[in-house]
Write a structure and sequence with these properties.
Number of helices: 5
Distance between the termini: 17 Å
Helix content: over 70%
Number of strands: 0
Strand content: under 5%
Oligomer: single chain
């Protein structure tokens, strides 16, 4: 079992649920037509959290590159979307390129699971 993957997975699930509720209720009027983008970031965080919980139980894959790549990718992908929507593109322009880099890390993490 990988404690890092387990703790990160549980944290991502908690954060995904919290962010989804926060976006649907407290930020609904502020986000307006961008609310689905917030929802996408929340969903990705949840899905990756569940994947990390599952990976944490695997003896081989929990000790490979997949776990840190998925953790980093999820933080970068969802975190940059949350930041851009909360603070606006003008104030945190540097986060724009972080989103696709996070996506690439996620792809690399899941691709690494193909090779035992």
């Amino acid at each position: 079992m990988s404690p890092l993957a387990w703790k990160a997975g549980a944290s991502f699930c908690v954060a995904g649920i919290g962010a989804g509720a926060f976006g649907a209720h407290a930020l609904a009027t502020r986000l307006g037509e961008k609310a689905p983008v917030w929802g996408t970031a929340s969903h990705y965080l949840m899905f990756n959290g569940v994947a990390l919980l599952a990976l944490s139980q695997h003896g081989v894959y929990s000790k490979r590159w997949g776990v840190p790549l998925i953790i980093g990718g999820a933080v970068m992908f969802s975190g940059s979307i949350f930041g851009l929507l909360l603070f606006g593109k003008e104030r945190v322009r540097f986060l724009g390129p972080v989103t696709p880099l996070g996506g690439l890390l996620l792809l690399a993490g899941y691709t690494s699971l193909l090779f035992p």
